[in-house]
Structures are given as structure tokens and as C-alpha cells.
């Protein structure tokens, strides 16, 4: 017996050891260092492609799919900021649950086989409320944020160490076998540091502090040309090809390649053409770069009150390769995927040696990575904004369109030109669901109930102070709303203002929006903008004899996130507030009188956003176009599994909650001005954030993402707080669907990157190829809406035949594609005949999938 049990124990030990070994084999520690060319992982230099996904801007439910789509798109690394104010809303009280579950996010990225760049900051900018700083920092006596200031440094170190420890405890650093290969401290401090007298000391301290945390992986500082060794200074911008790090021992790295740009309420919506983005990427790798990150790869949504600015929209779509709703934005995603593959075909040569660049003529250059052992990769660039060119390189001739790069993995054959897109194009659309009387879509509202929000002071916790208070110091950002309330007696002032008629109320506010009520009636409103957060209004008011109530509601729309001393800019009605009499020009200044203040709304105090309480009424008729009102309804989830949006057309401005979760601030009445938009934007030439704009004259944001995981099949509760007045009967649902699939390939497109070969024989039998693939694995191509071989015109969704078109296009494409998930067709006259000799022809196709 004894023997047996010993044996059993022995077996157990063996099994245990085997198990332990097998786990260890999944988490071999990676040794991450760098040299002048690249990050070096386990002794090997790496060309890395990275993309930003901020975990709280989507839901844990969406994460695996976003990460998978990133991997398929050719990313090696996911970059995320860490959002201090989410994780420590109250000093010492941490939150890492749900969308804040950083450890889970990092683990998911690791499990997908990708690396992580963890940008701890802890100042992050990011169009995030207060740049990611918890508001309580502001109230620490003597604190000066982002400077050589003991109280600040103590807090910054504590939080940074907390995050590093958390990652270490979970073995998430590459040095421990985890996915994190890189960390960032601070963020673009170099852009604004000249305003801080102690900048140099602070940045040296930050560097030392970070290094002392001993993560075992390199640290970076972005936009910090004096980043002390061994910290790598990296570049952020629309282009970083001309960037050089501050030491010839550090690699050339690009932490933010802006794939588009953010949007702000009241502004048009920026987009960045993929040809230009691809050009920027190729130029960077051409000129010696080895790490490049898309900011953003998936932008997502600013749920709750997380958006900064002020005036940053709830959507943070960013025109990123994966759209706000998690769908691929095509051809952006697909073309960049091809660019990544093309770069990776050059990786070995790129890493083996330093680049050598020579001129190919005016605004053109060739870069060669060539080793004695016979490796050779080349990039040919033409940055002329107008002129296409034919260039000679190594005895061969190459066509080089303006503002493009040819990539040659063997120094001879072109695998990709950044301006020639082989990827499919998709038309993604919001399909509106009828708002009423339609049960089939499963998205109708069951009728509305409401609660009026009182004008002025209604809370026990209201307080009185002499003079006008700055808002952020007063509310500590617990709410967007602050009431300023005062009563004035007109009898006493009659000698000044007669009986009050002809009086003008003048208000100056630091921002961001305000509403003025006299005796309970809304008399005027004002709003700032992304460019100018301040508000001034002058409104004629009718005062009555006796007591008059003046109630001013001041609102923040996300706190400032950028700039020197951004944290001290302030908001709210700091005055003056005056009553100007037009009769004799006299003025009563109310600024230094006694005001009564209320932080937040009664509805917030009562927690109406959850939908509970018995205060909701539905009789008499629904009040519409009334300011300050809470609305509630229930609805069934839209059928199917497509992403869901609420269309807030008909509403003014406010906040919305679905099943108690805030889907953010809505503001469909805030429209972009009319000028400056172009449907098709010339990608040639330097991009800037106001170069390519959409939505002129339209609401900056009309549709608001409701994550599927927040919905149950039926009985969902929508609560709105409407500030200015609207009609909830006009609210409707939409789902985001892929409507059409298109592609357009010319006879002189390079072969698809997957078909690339340097074998002469194989190349002879291959040519440009048009490929289509339905977005979902269970779909097939059901119809060909358009096919033309010749000189087709227009864009996806509006293709039409040009002067020259082959009759065979439609039947050939139908035969090759219908009924399959994907299809490929050679683009050549051998397939379609030649409808016009001597002219370069293209094949354009639009298809749909079911
Ligand atoms: C950068 C900053 C990012 C983000 C970006 C604009 O300057 O580092 O956090 O704000 O600009 O989207």
C-alpha cells in the first residue's frame, strides 16, 4: 500500500511537472531591447505595424472581434493609453471593471498573438475628458500638473507604479512572457513644455521614475526631442518620414500616425484618404522607420461623459480602418493590409542594413536596402503633388504616379503602389428602422413618459455665495450642469430701468454652453465651439415689477484635454452678468451679488437615468419642444446582429442612457457650417485636419452607437435628458449594414500582393486581378449590380459605363462570382475582349451579398 501510494505521488509529480512545463512553454520571456534600427525582440530586429484601440471606447464584447480584425489587417501591436480618471475616479478608489478592464484587454491582445504598447501617460490628451487626469488632482493644495512639483509627481508616480505593478502581477510584460513590449511615459510634453519653467527637471524626473519601475521593456516619450537616454523619443503626426530620433543609438519610431481626425460638435467631419495614409506609411518605412502606429485603428465611442475638448463629439470614429461600429472601413483597412504585406516582404532586407537614398529627379527618390548576401528591397517615391512620372531605376522603367510610393521587395518588381488600390471597397450604410407602428423590425418605442426638470434651484444641497463662481472648481465635474440663481427686486431699481422693459441681459461665460431663464421662461442660450469655448450672450428681457427670478444654467461639454496648463482654463459664468437698461443706458452689475448655486440636476439626484422611480408620467399629451425635460420609453432590440445606432433627429441637446448605461451626449442641432466640404478630396499633397471634410451644413453627429451587448431582446429602457427642446417621437433606430461591395482595377495595377512573386515565369501568367469577398463568412455574392470593362466612371454606388465598355463584362463577372463568398477575375483583354484599342482599361464591379 505504502509503495503504491508513493508511486501514485510520483506520478502526480511527473504530471504536475509536465503541466507546469507546458504552461511555461506558452510564456517564454521575451527580451526586448533596441538598437539604431529597430526594436530587438529576442535578439532579432523587427519591423512592426501597430494600431491604437482604446479599450473604454468599445465594450469587452467587441474587443475580441476588433483584435481579430486588427490581426487580419496585418497589425503586430495594439497600442492603448491608460485612462487614469476612469480607473481612479476618487483618490484611492479604483475601477477596473467592464470597459475599464485593462488586464483583460491586454490578455486578449496577447492571446491573439499580438504585442501591446501600453501608453500609461498618465496624461494622455486623447480628446478625453481632462486629458485623462482625475479631477481630484486639481484640488490637491499646491499642485501644478505636469511640472516639477512634489504633490503632482507623488500622484503621477503612485498611479504609474500601480499600473506597472498590476501588469507585472499578471505577468503581462514581455520580459515575463506577456505581450507588452513597450510603454510610454508622459505624452507630447515637448509640444508645450516651453510654457513650464521646470520642464527639463520634470522630464528627467519622469524618465528616471519610469525606468526605476523596472518593466524589463523599453520606454518611449512621444514628441519629446530631449527625452533622456535610454528613453526613445518618437514622432506623432500625419507624416514622420523626416523624423530622426535624438541619438544614433535609437530607432526611428512613429507612435501616432493619424489615420483621420476627431470631430467636434459644430464642425464638419474630417476624413483622410487611404492613398495619402498609405503614402505616409510607405515613406516612413522607406526612410528607415521600423515601428509605425495608426492613431486610431479603431476609434470607437466616447460613452458617458468621457469626451474631452471641450466639444468633442460622442463618436470617436476618426475615419479609422475599423469604423466606430466595429465594421471594416473599406478600402482603407484592405489597402493598408496590402501595404503591411508589401512592407513585410521587404522586412529581411530592411533589418539587415541601413537604407541608402538617391535622387530620381525632382521630388523623387529611391531608397535601397541591399546586403552583400544578396538581399535587396527598394522604395521609389514621387512626392510631386501633380506630376506622374516614369523613372529609371536599376535599368528598368517604372511608372510612378504623383504622391505615391512603389514598393519593390526584390529591387526589381513592384508589389504595390500606394495610390493603386487592389482592395475591395464597401459601402456601409445606416439603414433606418421605421420609428413607429412597425413590429417586424422589432425596434419600436412603446410610448413616452416624462418628468420635468425644475428651472433653477430645487435641491437641498444648494448653497449661496457672493459673486460668480468658476464652474469646474465648484462642480468638481460631478455633473455637466451648474445653476446660478438670483432674485432681483425691480421696484428698487425702477429709477434705473423704468419697469424693466427694454432691458438687456448680458452674460459672459468661460463656457461651454448656457441657458438663461427669467421667471421660469427660457429667454436665451449660447454656445461656444471647439475653437472658442467662451460664450457671451445679450438677450432682451421683460422684467416685472417686484421680484424677478434669474436662473442661469451653465453646462460643460467635456473638459479641456490639450495645451499648456489646460487644467486651469476653467468654465462657467464668471461674468460679468449685467442688466443693461436701454432707456438711459444704465447698467446693474449682478456679478458681485449673492448667488445661489446648485450642482447638477434634480433628475441626477433622483437617478432618473436608470429609468426607475415612480415619478414618470405619461398623461396628458407628451410635451415636445420644451426645455429641461426627462423622457423615457422602452423598446425591443432591432432584429439581427448588426450594430445599432439611435438617430436623434428631432432632439436638441442632452444626454441619453440605455438600460442605465450612458451612450453619451447627443446634440443633433449643432450643425457644421456650409463651407469647406468636398465629397472627393484630392489625396495628393500634404494632408491636414481641415483638408478633407464631410457633413457641411449637417449635424456633426446624428447617430449614436448603442452597443449590442447593452441590449436585451425586449423591454430595453431609453432615458433622455433634453436640455433645449425636442420631439422624442422623431427618434428612430438604425442598423449599420454593408450595402455593396465594389472594386475597380486597371490593366496597369500591380498583381494582388498575395500573388506577388519575383519568379519571371510565374509573373508571365499572372496579371492584375479583381477580387471580391463578402464581409461575413456565411454570406455569398447574390447579385452583380454593375460590371464594366473599359473606361467606367463614378465611384462605388454610382458607377456608370464610360465611352468604352465590353459587352462581356456582366456575364463574365456573374459567372465567376454569383453564389460564392469570394471571387477573383483577371483584368485583361483575354477575358473581356478589347473594346477600345490603345486605351488603358479598367474593370469596375459592384456586387451585393446575402
Ligand atoms: C495628439 C495626442 C493624442 C490625440 C491626438 C489627436 O497630439 O497625443 O492623444 O489627442 O493628438 O487626436
From TrEMBL:
It catalyses: Hydrolysis of terminal non-reducing beta-D-galactose residues in beta-D-galactosides. It comes from the Eukaryota. Residues 1-29 form the signal peptide. One of its GO terms (molecular function) is beta-galactosidase activity. The keyword tRNA processing does not apply. One of its GO terms (biological process) is carbohydrate metabolic process. It is an enzyme of class 3 (hydrolase). Its EC number is 3.2.1.23. Transmembrane segments: none annotated. CDD domains: Gal_Rha_Lectin_BGal. Residues 764-850 form the SUEL-type lectin domain. Keywords: Glycosidase, Hydrolase, Signal. Belongs to the glycosyl hydrolase 35 family. This is Beta-galactosidase. It comes from Fraxinus pennsylvanica.
Amino acid at each position: 500500500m505504502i509503495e503504491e501510494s508513493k508511486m501514485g505521488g510520483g506520478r502526480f509529480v511527473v504530471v504536475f511537472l509536465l503541466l507546469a512545463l507546458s504552461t511555461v512553454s506558452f510564456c517564454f520571456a521575451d527580451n526586448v531591447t533596441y538598437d539604431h534600427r529597430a526594436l530587438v525582440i529576442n535578439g532579432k530586429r523587427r519591423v512592426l505595424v501597430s494600431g491604437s484601440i482604446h479599450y473604454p471606447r468599445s465594450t469587452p464584447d467587441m474587443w475580441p472581434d476588433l483584435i481579430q480584425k486588427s490581426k487580419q489587417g496585418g497589425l503586430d501591436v495594439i497600442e492603448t493609453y491608460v485612462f487614469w480618471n476612469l480607473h481612479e475616479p476618487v483618490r484611492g478608489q479604483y475601477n477596473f471593471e467592464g470597459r475599464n478592464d485593462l488586464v483583460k484587454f491586454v490578455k486578449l491582445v496577447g492571446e491573439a498573438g499580438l504585442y501591446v504598447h501600453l501608453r500609461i501617460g498618465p496624461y494622455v490628451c486623447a480628446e478625453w475628458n481632462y486629458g485623462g487626469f482625475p479631477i481630484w488632482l486639481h484640488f490637491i493644495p499646491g499642485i501644478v500638473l505636469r511640472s516639477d512639483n512634489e504633490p503632482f509627481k507623488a500622484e503621477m508616480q503612485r498611479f504609474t507604479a500601480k499600473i506597472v505593478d498590476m501588469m507585472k502581477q499578471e505577468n503581462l510584460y514581455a520580459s515575463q512572457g506577456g505581450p507588452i513590449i513597450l510603454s510610454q511615459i508622459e505624452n507630447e510634453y515637448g509640444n508645450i513644455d516651453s510654457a513650464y519653467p521646470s520642464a527639463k527637471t520634470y522630464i528627467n524626473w519622469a524618465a528616471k521614475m519610469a525606468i526605476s519601475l523596472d518593466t524589463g521593456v523599453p520606454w518611449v516619450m512621444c514628441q519629446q526631442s530631449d527625452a533622456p537616454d535610454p528613453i526613445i523619443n518618437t514622432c506623432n503626426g500625419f507624416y514622420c518620414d523626416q523624423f530622426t530620433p535624438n541619438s544614433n543609438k535609437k530607432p526611428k519610431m512613429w507612435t501616432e500616425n493619424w489615420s483621420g481626425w476627431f470631430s467636434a460638435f459644430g464642425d464638419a467631419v474630417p476624413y483622410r484618404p487611404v492613398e495619402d495614409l498609405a503614402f505616409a506609411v510607405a515613406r516612413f518605412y522607406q526612410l528607415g522607420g521600423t515601428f509605425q502606429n495608426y492613431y486610431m485603428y479603431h476609434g470607437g465611442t466616447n460613452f458617458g461623459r468621457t469626451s474631452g475638448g471641450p466639444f468633442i463629439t460622442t463618436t470617436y470614429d476618426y475615419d479609422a480602418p475599423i469604423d466606430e461600429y466595429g465594421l471594416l472601413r473599406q478600402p482603407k483597412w484592405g489597402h493598408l493590409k496590402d501595404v503591411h504585406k508589401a512592407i513585410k516582404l521587404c522586412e529581411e532586407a530592411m533589418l539587415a542594413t541601413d537604407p541608402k537614398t538617391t535622387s530620381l529627379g525632382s521630388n523623387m527618390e529611391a531608397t535601397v536596402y541591399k546586403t552583400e548576401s544578396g538581399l535587396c528591397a527598394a522604395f521609389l517615391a514621387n512626392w510631386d503633388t501633380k506630376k506622374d512620372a516614369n523613372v529609371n531605376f536599376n535599368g528598368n522603367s517604372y511608372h510612378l504616379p504623383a504622391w505615391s510610393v512603389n514598393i519593390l521587395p526584390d529591387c526589381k518588381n513592384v508589389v504595390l503602389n500606394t495610390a493603386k488600390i487592389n482592395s475591395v471597397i464597401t459601402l456601409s450604410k445606416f439603414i433606418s428602422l421605421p420609428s413607429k407602428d412597425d413590429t417586424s423590425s422589432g425596434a419600436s418605442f412603446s410610448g413616452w413618459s416624462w418628468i420635468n426638470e425644475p428651472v433653477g434651484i430645487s435641491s437641498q444641497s444648494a448653497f449661496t455665495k457672493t459673486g460668480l463662481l468658476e464652474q469646474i472648481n465648484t462642480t468638481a465635474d460631478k455633473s455637466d450642469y451648474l445653476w446660478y440663481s438670483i432674485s432681483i427686486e425691480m421696484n428698487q431699481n425702477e429709477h434705473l430701468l423704468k419697469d424693466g422693459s427694454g432691458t438687456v441681459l448680458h452674460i459672459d461665460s468661460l463656457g461651454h454652453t448656457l441657458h438663461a431663464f427669467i421667471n421660469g421662461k427660457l429667454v436665451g442660450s449660447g454656445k461656444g465651439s471647439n475653437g472658442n469655448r467662451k460664450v457671451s450672450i445679450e438677450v432682451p428681457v421683460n422684467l416685472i415689477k417686484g421680484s424677478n427670478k434669474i436662473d442661469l444654467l451653465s453646462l460643460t461639454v467635456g473638459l479641456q484635454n490639450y495645451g499648456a496648463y489646460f487644467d486651469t482654463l476653467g468654465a462657467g459664468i464668471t461674468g460679468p452678468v449685467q442688466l443693461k437698461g436701454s432707456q438711459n443706458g444704465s447698467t446693474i452689475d449682478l456679478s458681485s451679488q449673492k448667488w445661489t448655486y446648485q450642482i447638477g440636476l434634480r433628475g441626477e439626484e433622483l437617478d432618473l437615468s436608470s429609468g426607475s422611480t415612480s415619478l414618470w408620467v405619461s398623461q396628458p399629451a407628451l410635451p415636445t419642444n420644451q426645455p429641461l425635460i426627462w423622457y423615457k420609453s422602452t423598446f425591443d432590440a432591432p432584429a439581427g446582429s448588426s450594430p445599432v445606432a439611435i438617430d436623434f433627429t428631432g432632439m436638441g441637446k442632452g444626454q441619453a442612457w440605455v438600460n442605465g448605461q450612458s451612450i453619451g451626449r447627443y446634440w443633433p442641432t449643432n450643425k457644421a457650417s456650409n463651407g469647406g466640404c468636398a465629397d472627393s478630396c484630392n489625396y495628393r499633397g500634404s494632408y491636414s485636419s481641415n483638408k478633407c471634410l464631410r457633413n457641411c451644413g449637417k449635424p456633426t453627429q446624428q447617430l449614436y452607437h448603442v452597443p449590442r451587448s447593452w441590449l436585451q431582446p425586449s423591454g430595453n429602457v431609453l432615458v433622455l435628458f433634453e436640455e433645449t427642446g425636442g420631439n422624442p417621437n422623431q427618434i428612430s433606430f438604425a442598423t449599420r449594414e454593408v450595402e455593396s461591395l465594389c472594386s475597380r482595377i486597371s490593366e496597369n495595377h500591380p498583381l494582388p500582393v498575395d500573388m506577388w512573386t519575383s519568379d519571371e515565369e510565374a509573373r508571365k501568367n499572372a496579371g492584375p486581378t479583381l477580387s471580391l469577398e463578402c464581409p461575413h463568412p456565411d454570406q455569398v455574392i447574390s447579385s452583380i449590380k454593375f460590371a464594366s470593362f473599359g473606361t467606367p466612371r463614378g465611384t462605388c454606388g454610382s458607377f456608370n459605363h464610360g465611352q468604352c465598355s465590353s459587352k462581356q463584362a456582366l456575364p463574365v463577372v456573374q459567372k465567376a462570382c454569383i453564389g460564392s463568398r469570394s471571387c477573383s477575375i483577371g483584368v485583361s483583354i483575354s477575358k473581356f475582349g478589347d473594346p477600345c484599342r490603345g486605351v488603358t482599361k479598367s474593370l469596375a464591379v459592384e456586387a451585393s451579398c446575402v
